[in-house]
Amino acid sequence: MRARGCRGRAARPGLTTLVVANAYGRVEDLPELASFFSNVERLGAGRLRLVFVNGWASRADRDEERTVLEDLARGIADLGWVGARAIGTVLGIRSLEPLLAPLLFPSEEAVRRFMAAAPLGPLLEPLRAAGIEGLALLPGGMRRPFGITGPLLGPDTWEGKVIRTHASLTGEASVRALGAMPVLRAARELAAGPPPGVDGMDLHPRAVVERHYPGWLTCNVPLWPRLLLVAANQESFRRLSSAQQAVLTEAARRATASPLPLPSPIQLDLPAVRRLDASPHDRTLLHEALKPVHDQIRSASTGEKTLAYIDRFLNPD
Predict the structure, then answer these.
(1) Structure confidence at residue 10 (pLDDT)
(2) Is the residue at 276 inside a domain?
(3) Who has greater pLDDT, 31 or 128?
């Protein structure tokens, strides 16, 4: 159910209500975002009031992040969040794609350290051309191969498989580079159990727990980060007073500086899941198969610079 953004309407003098689009059931179920929204509530007391519209997209929508982003750009919502992966597919903006390069970050902790320290402003600035003000990028875990019909290890085990993923330029290119077919599935389809005709998924640790699917989790293949983008409609943001804008930017700064620590797969209780490790040979073959995806990212205007910066951060010596 959607509600038109309040666009600077004050409930009482000095207090502005902002409509927040949440594609899923309850924003309380998204601990990765809790810090940002609690910072806004605390810093904006008497200045800003957030109204969350949960279930912004239909549970039958297979591309719910497109729905949120397009509504955010149109000003139907004032604030919203999506996976950063959606920016490239929906808006054609590739500045965030280097952060999603396959097999780049080795762990949840590496992503967390990078996001807290890196200057992300230049990567978010291109969103303004689409009418969106990028506020924060928050880590939500590493996506790893989760096999439903069999383990996903080296490229030979991906060949010909159908992999449920999200709309993502880099994610879909990576799945194809491994010889598999990427497909989208809606929340309603996933809630009913392992979706028919799907051989595997790219899942972050908490999703593995929540799905209760039996299967195989490849623990030592960190495919790409799950990054959550919190953004505002640019016109709504500009209509805020300077003090109200400062609340949102400071809330984003604090949330980015201290992102939520997330568990690794070995820390999770997964009774129906068999944990596996890909062999060193399989990992080498995966890197070789995915090299064209890295080359494609480098071919973009800022891709090479951003990938080089990430590599220096991860390998300072």
Answers:
(1) 46
(2) yes
(3) 128
Please report whether residue 49 resides in a domain.
yes
Residues facing residue 98 across a β-bridge: none
pLDDT in tens, 2-33: 544 444 444 556 689 999 999 887 777 788 88
Residue 193 inside a domain? The answer is yes
CATH code of the domain in which 283 resides: 3.40.190.170
Amino acid type, 209? V
What's the pLDDT score for residue 133?
Answer: 97
- Number of domains into which the chain is organized: 1
Tokens for 42, please give them.
């605390």
CB atoms within 10 A of CB 205: 24
**If you count them, how many residues does the chain have?**
317
Q: What whole-number distance in Å separates Cα of residue 140 and Cα of residue 167?
A: 17
Q: What is the 3-state secondary structure (H, E, C) of the chain?
A: CCCCCCCCCEEECCEEEEEEEECCCCHHHCHHHHHHHHHHHHHCCCCEEEEEEECCCCCCCCCHHHHHHHHHHHCCCCEEEEECCHHHHHHCCCCCHHHHCCCCCCCHHHHHHHHHHCCCHHHHHHHHHHCEEEEEEEEEEEEEEEECCCCCCCHHHHCCCEEECCCCHHHHHHHHHCCCEEECCCHHHHHCCCCCCCCEEEECHHHHHHHCCCEEEECCCCCEEEEEEEEEEHHHHHHCCHHHHHHHHHHHHHHHHCCCCCCCHHHCCCCCEEEECCCHHHHHHHHHHHHHHHHHHHCCCCHHHHHHHHHHHHCCC
Residue 197 pLDDT > 80: yes
3 assigned to some structural domain: no
Residue 73: per-residue pLDDT: 95
> How many angstroms separate the CA atoms of 286 and 281, rounded?
9
Within a 10 A sphere around the Cβ of 241, how many other Cβ atoms?
A: 13
Structural domain harbouring 38 = 10-314
pTM (2 decimals)? Answer: 0.91
